[in-house]
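Ticket #4471: structure output looks truncated?

Reporter: J.K.
Steps to reproduce: submitted the chain below (185 residues) through the standard prediction queue, then opened the result file.
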Amino acid sequence: MTVGKHSLQGERDSFDDLCRKNYASLLSYARLFVPVHVAQDVVQDVLLGVWKKRDRLDLDSGLGNYMVRAVYNRCMNIIEREKVSSRYVDSYRNRITSLLSSEYLDPDRNPVILKMYSNDLRKTLDSAISNLPDRCAEVFRMSYEQHLSEKEISEKLGISVRTVETHIYNALKKLRMQLASMEIS
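Returned output as attached by the reporter:
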């Protein structure tokens, strides 16, 4: 194609002609390097760049070679930026992963985190226990906090072992329902 300086100056038809004749081949070439949506942007940028520089370019010879080189260079720049970006993202992803798997954030190895979550759980559990009927809460606390056997609780409170078992069963049932509704995580 012969595109002279005079024929491209401000004429929409000339720009459309430039795009129509070169877009498809440049897009096919750009797609060898980058995804189609990126290739479309590259080709559009190159064609617009040629149009904007039409007064400074010698477009009578080598226009096709110039545009192919421009597409190639832009694609290579995009690929290099993506490599750098990928290395950066990978580096930070690795740092975050190492922090997450380190002793620093492991609740079983970090006493501050363990205590913080244990205290939260304890407060939630205490609140749920306080909602139990008095005798049921008393039996439950003796069993789970004081680690007394059902027989020991029975003797201390002067109630049957079967009644102790019933209180513990009812307490666990109500606590499960209360704690589930609080959505403890």
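Triage note (M.O.): checked the attachment and the full token line is present. The domain at 5-99 is CATH 1.10.1740.10 (Rna Polymerase Sigma Factor; Chain: A).
Status: closed, working as intended.
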